[in-house]
Design brief:
The protein is mainly α and 401 residues long. It has a single domain, classed as Up-down Bundle (Growth Hormone, Chain: A). Helices cover 79% and strands 0% of the residues. Helix 10 packs across helix 11 and helix 12 packs antiparallel against helix 13. The longest helix has 35 residues. The chain is globular.
Amino acid sequence: MNPKQRYSNIFLLFVARALRGFGDGFAIIVLPAYLSAIGFGAAEVGLVAAAALLGTAVFTLAVGFVAPRYDLRNLLIVGAALMICTGMAFAQATVIWIIIAVAFFGTINPCTGDIGVLIPLEHAMLTYGTGDEHRTQTFARYSLIGALSMAVGALAAATPDFLSATGVERTAAFKLMFYAYVALGLSCAAIYMCLPHAHAEERPAAAPLKQSRGVVYKLAALFSLDAFAGGFVVQSLLALWLFQKFDMSLGAASIFIFWTMLLSAFSYLLAAWLAKRIGLINTMVFTHIPSSLCLIFAALSSSLPIALGLLLVRSALSQMDVPTRSSHVMAVVTPPERPAAASVTAVPRSLASSLSPALAGAMFSASFLGLPLILCGVLKITYDVALLFSFRHVKPPEESA
């Protein structure tokens, strides 16, 4: 593949990531508000978030099996079709078990970060032809674009409030947002069709994990702990926490979440700069621990301005491990093992993160509003310490030189 074609493919993947991020940005805020509007409580919102994460895990596992055998371009198109079906189904469903089923089989991601059925496919596609010296920067840009688009999408989540003010019935306004999600899925499908077919001669033949198995399994276990912790404060539940504890409006919450996502977005570029100086693992750990402490203190605060300030600081630090984690996984395995490694590390994350939202929803229903945030912070600090001691001597190629 010549450099011009490679850069063109990366650009197309960046555009598709932006569209999907925009859709996720408003969907993760609109969905809990929509469920509340049609009569469901915090426990049901937690079940829907858990189903979405569990479904993501199952489909990501399936992707890990089929990606080595099928064209990555065609798999991406199938993922976009699933996105279209998700928006259509949410716009029509009003029965909780049907909504849970749509969440399980669909593509709406209830949290920020790199969880999603299309993520491993795009990671594998981005890595081919990218040298070690540019890999972390490429993932940082990919994460930056995703986070910025989610931030703009979070602002768009206030659209139902504006539509309601003009006389549109509130549930109808929510349904219009899901139809917008359908339109984004159609756009992604069109973009993926412009990608070249990923034939075997154009990329290394995918292989199951062999020589990197031990490293990947250990990373997957640690990432699962991190994901389980993060599931207590997925963006949908954080929005619900703001609604319940501080009685924030949908518009105010969407503006605040926009700023949290914006801070997270620009932190990706800082992560790439920092990783060149102190290493990937150190960047992941020494930015994560302070962010977890901010989350714990926010949960204990009774002042809205203080809580929001702490959450903003957390947002500026908590996602710096996203591009560095992706880069580290791709660096410590052989090129033929990369699709399998992406899947093996992604699936346990999704499975683990699917368990905690339902628990968090039950805690909210029982008026333990701050407990999910505290549990998240404590577990994430435990993960950071374990990661540092387990992998401080495992160096990617650019750090071993």
